[in-house]
Design a protein that fits this description.
It holds the Pfam family TerB. The protein is α+β, with helices and mostly antiparallel strands. β1 (18-34) and β2 form a beta hairpin. Strands 1-2-3-4 form a four-stranded antiparallel sheet. It contains eight helices and four strands, in the order αββββααααααα.
């Protein structure tokens, strides 16, 4: 006896006869961080047109789809929001700029008359990726910053320095885990504490750093207090 073919079999045959196909068109390219590969890769930005197929032959348009981002290495498609994540190289540059700007802000708040904060700041900036940083360079940059803005060293964080901090840290903060944002604030705190307790101007600068890093005010207070306690 021949097997009886049911509704599921007929549906399967229909799906084999009818289908959809997408024709992709490149509309741009560049470099991005591929979450599938876990590194920087080239990509193509694609838009697609869908067509109904009959026996594999396109017959009727079914509208557009995309745009999508296609990784040149793994071939996976992603939503265009994947391009919001910086590449590894871009992230490293952003972090370098962030560490450097925080160090300058804290030094400007505390002044450069003491050697210990300069040494601590220089070590932090070098660890952040500026291998050729020197204490003399940092002191000169702080002096130039004060001359350019007309502010006196040791005064509370002014509008221009606040803008500098936000320009450097606002793009970085969304891509740092909470622990990373806290570590960056603590680096600034250690610079300020290298020659003694916080001055009002240093505390003001560090509070501005915490706000730019989107850390809650209570966390900033807790971290600044913890930095004063020897480990």
């Amino acid at each position: 006896m021949l097997p009886v073919r049911g509704r599921d079999d007929r549906a399967t045959r229909a799906l084999c006869v009818l289908g959809t196909r997408t024709a992709w068109t490149p509309v741009g390219d560049g470099e991005f961080y591929c979450p599938g590969c876990g590194g920087d890769r080239n990509y193509q930005r694609l838009t697609g047109r869908r067509r109904l197929t009959l026996l594999g032959v396109p017959v009727l348009p079914r509208g557009t789809t995309g745009p999508v981002v296609e990784c040149a290495a793994c071939g996976h498609h992603y939503g265009t929001d994947v391009l919001d994540h910086p590449t590894t190289r871009r992230f490293s540059a952003m972090l370098r700029d962030g560490v450097h700007t925080v160090a300058l802000a804290v030094l400007a708040a505390g002044g450069t008359g003491s050697r210990a904060p300069l040494e601590t700041a220089c070590a932090a900036v070098r660890a952040g990726g500026v291998d050729d940083c020197t204490e003399e360079q940092l002191a000169a940059l702080v002096d130039a910053l004060a001359a350019d803005t007309g502010r006196v060293l040791g005064e509370p964080c002014g509008a221009s320095l606040t803008i500098e901090l936000h320009e450097a840290l606002d793009p970085l903060a969304p891509h740092l885990a909470p622990a990373g944002r806290e570590a960056l604030l603590l680096q600034g705190a250690h610079i300020a504490l290298a020659d003694g307790p916080y001055t009002p101007a240093e505390r003001d600068a560090l509070t501005t750093v915490g706000a730019a890093l989107t850390l809650p005010a209570e966390d900033v207070t807790r971290l600044l207090a913890a930095a004063r306690t020897p480990s």
